[in-house]
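Go through this:
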Amino acid sequence: MTQHLPEWIMIRYAKLWLKFKEKEFSKSEAEKILPKDTSIAVVLSDLKKYGWLEMKMDQKDARKTIYELKEPKKAISEEIRELARK
């Protein structure tokens, strides 16, 4: 289920989307894109919580997580469907 993002998270999502689109990326790659004062763990966790980010374990190193952003149109479409059910 996708939920509406608070503005501060949407800004960070937009920065990540412009760089990665639907490509997989790592936490260290995200750190290079987002402002230095940003808690990467919080941003990634909140994006996952709101349904805008998929996470999976790295096949080569189970200690690492791989991330993939949900395409904006798909996320918004899911959000609209959820709102219409209320």
User: Anything to note?
Assistant: Residues 7-20 form the longest helix (14 residues). The chain is about 50% helix and 10% strand. The two ends are 13 Å apart (CA to CA). The CA atoms of residues 60 and 73 lie 31 Å apart.
